[in-house]
Amino acid sequence: MRDQRRRTRTRRTAHRGTSFVARRLVLGAAQTAAVVLLVFTLTEALPGDAAVTLAGDQPDPARIAAIREAMDLDRPAYERLTDWATGLPHGDFGTSLTSGRPVSGYIADAFGPTLTLAALTLALLVPLGFGLGVLAARHEGGLVDRLVSSVTLAVYAVPEFALGVLLVTVLALKLAWLPPTAVGHGGDLLAHPAVLVRPVLVLLSRPVCSLSRLVRAGMVDALASPYVAHARRCGVPGARVRHAHALPNALAPAAQQLARTVDWLLCGVIVVEALFVIPGLGTVLLNAVAERDVPVVQGLAVVFGVLTVLLNLGADLVAHRLTPRAGVAA
In this predicted model, what pLDDT tens digit does every residue of 267-293 receive, in sequence order? Predict the structure, then answer.
């Protein structure tokens, strides 16, 4: 009888887990469709006109009309939306209005530098964030805990652009240890590691603070729980208590924080790329906005939106796997 009840509970848990995953997948698909529609609507509302920009300083109305016709800008918005949306699943983001290149080419060329920065930052973020969080929780209330908390809070309060300017001034201009920007080094940043030091430090500064404080909070709550106290009474070593019993409680919120961080690293590093002149997605987006190159803006916005949806969907599934009861309740 007991085995039958256990099997029944297992089937119910599996059914609820499958239902949770299905709901999240449907929600992700709906969010992706909403992103496509919202991006097109917002880019249509952008001020200015690419045809006017291409016509020169003293545009002739006839020339502007000819450019608009050649670019299909004179077609109704719903027709252009239909053509654009049907090409997205095939990787066809349209053609740049200013250069005539496929938008997918811009994205492919710029994705490498941005991905390099994101990967290096994430590779350092995980051990540093978890290590500092565990260290502070181990010495809760002590000097080490107060020192880690104070330093992380102070670093988190410094904006990225201010920290970037400070690093450029000190390390590049004053000490001449590192090149000030990535100009002249091309898109292969790994071949010039000195260029990556300051951008990675700037990108790492705030996420490592938030992740370490999140891990510390989860560890402190877990270390004060009855089951951890029972494990200690049973003679379980302290390191095993911290890493096998307390740390898993911080993994679910940490996974969601990491997903938000990866989303920010791939989609929100415009300030850092502009400051250090890195030819990534942020730089391409800034140039496209300045040139009123709507297809490039639309393509990048869709990529950013879909990445955000996928990363948050993955974080929800990981959090549900680590804490299935909380996930089902959600």
Answer: 767 878 888 888 888 888 888 887 778
Q: What is the mean pLDDT of residues 67-73?
A: 69
Rounded CA-CA distance 230/50 in Å is: 69
Enumerate residues 6+ apart whose C-beta is below 8 A from 31: 309
**At CA 274, angle to CA 271 and CA 275, rounded to 5?**
85
**153: which 2 tokens?**
């809070």
Centre a 10 Å sphere on the Cβ of residue 195 and count the other Cβ atoms it contains.
23
Query: What is the spatial distance between Cα 62 and Cα 54, in angstroms, rounded to a whole number?
Result: 13
First CA to last CA distance, the chain? 31
113 within 8 A of 279, measured Cβ to Cβ: yes
Using a 10 angstrom Cβ sphere, with 0-12 exposed, 13-18 middle and 19 or more buried, the burial of residue 302 is buried
**What are φ and ψ of residue 59, in 5° steps?**
-70, 140
Closest alpha carbon to 277 in 171, 146, 180, 134: 180
- The SS3 call for residue 314 is helix
Phi, psi of 277, rounded to the nearest 5 degrees: 50, 55
95 — phi, psi (to 5°)?
A: -125, 140
CA within 13 Å, CB half, 69? 6
d(CA 317, CA 330): 12
Cβ 134 vs Cβ 242: under 8 Å: yes
Backbone region of residue 184 per phi and psi (left: phi > 0; alpha: psi in -120 to 50; beta: other values): left
Rg over CA atoms, the chain: 25
Q: What does the mean pLDDT of the chain come to?
A: 78
* pTM of the predicted model as reported, rounded to 2 decimal places: 0.74
CA distance 307 to 284: 17
Residues contacting residue 195 through CB under 8 Å, at least 6 positions apart: 178, 179, 181, 182, 185, 189, 276, 278
